[in-house]
């Protein structure tokens, strides 16, 4: 391959990529209304319940915030584990 063919191939690949990105961008973009809602703070009473799986089920956000305030994470980021003796 000579230098002209290489440049033509690289240019065609770049144009094909940019054209595909321009065509597919509207499908990947977040709608304006969703973006505006994400930028404005929402009261926690208006937020939907959070599903914590089969063990806990749906839990209101107010309970999650209350639990976080009652049981804050440790300051150094390390949880202390209680060791239990599992002997005879």
Topology, pairings included?
Blueprint: H1 3-28, H2 32-39, E1 50-51, E2 58-59, H3 61-70
Antiparallel strand pairs: 1-2
Descriptive account of the structure:
The protein is mainly alpha-helical. It is built from three helices and two strands. Strand 1 and strand 2 (58-59) form a beta hairpin. The protein has two domains: 1-31; 41-73, no CATH class. The radius of gyration is 27 Å and the shape is elongated. The chain has helices at residues 3-28, 32-39, 61-70; strands at residues 50-51, 58-59.
Residue windows where pLDDT falls under 50 for at least 5 positions: none
What is the molecular shape? elongated
Question: What class do helices, strands and sheet pairing give?
Answer: mainly alpha
Major β-sheet profile: 2 strands, antiparallel
Fraction of residues in H or I helices: 40-55%
Roughly how many Å is the radius of gyration? 27 Å
Mean pLDDT: 88
Distance between the termini: 77 Å
| Helix-strand topology string | HHEEH
- Number of E strands: 2
- Count of folded domains: 2
- Largest sheet, spatial ordering of strands: 1-2
Structure annotation, total helices? 3
Q: Oligomerization state of this entry? A: single chain
Strand content is under 5%
